[in-house]
Amino acid sequence: MPKRILHVVTNVAQYDDPAHPTGLWLSELTHAWQVFADQGYQQVLVSPAGGAVPLEPRSLKFPYYDKTAKAWHDDPAMMALLENTAAPAELDPTDFDAIYFTGGHAVMYDFLDDADLQQLTRGIWENGGVVSSVCHGYCGLLNTTLSDGSYLIAGREMTGFSWLEEKLAGVARLVPYNAEQLATERGAHYGKGLLPFVSHTVVDGRLVTGQNPGSAKATARKVAAALDGAAR
């Protein structure tokens, strides 16, 4: 049976200030989707509310609007997948081998405290699956607890979009919290690359995380490697 991957995407289209649009960072989905497609994996999209997924406008500009992102954006069938995503309560964690949280600042609003997403993540992890995120996607892991009440990320090496990158991106005053700080408060061993916006990934067993948009492809490849190792 082919491995099954669950991609988590956002339903949020703006910051608290509606003058600032946001949404899914498209290449963080398309890069991983291509890696997993090349492996022959089955892939499913889920969002906290189900249904339509907005796109982050900045992800549709150079240099992030690359070949894979443009191909997805230009394909009505692929865009239709983002109009009809599943809701978490409709899914069974035992049906999936890995969960992959995509980013974009929007996820800071609807990933952090979604109990149904947390239940899916906990189920996949406790069934021996791989839990992964890229960029702001790790916001979906910050409050996820295991059956014993401990945080999933406690005591584990991980990464995600850094506070320095928030400052350099000019949005530190717009975001609702400091995700890097929260990860540390939850007991994670947060680490980041020497240079901002450069690909950086961290693997701690079945937890695979990438720091920023440029890390999506490498993160997906390491998810595939982790799944391959789990199958042996």
TrEMBL record:
Domain named DJ-1/PfpI: residues: 27-224
Keywords carried by this UniProt record: Lyase, Stress response
InterPro entries, per the entry: Class_I_gatase-like (IPR029062), DJ-1/PfpI (IPR002818), Prot/Nucl_acid_deglycase (IPR050325)
Nucleus recorded as keyword: no
Protein name (Swiss-Prot/TrEMBL): DJ-1/PfpI domain-containing protein
The keyword Ribonucleoprotein is assigned to this record: no
UniProt feature coiled coil, ranges: none
Protein family according to the UniProt entry: Belongs to the peptidase C56 family. HSP31-like subfamily.
Source organism, top-level taxon: Bacteria
Any one GO cellular component localisation term in the record: cytoplasm
GO molecular function, one term: glyoxalase III activity
CDD domains from the UniProt entry: GATase1_Hsp31_like (cd03141)
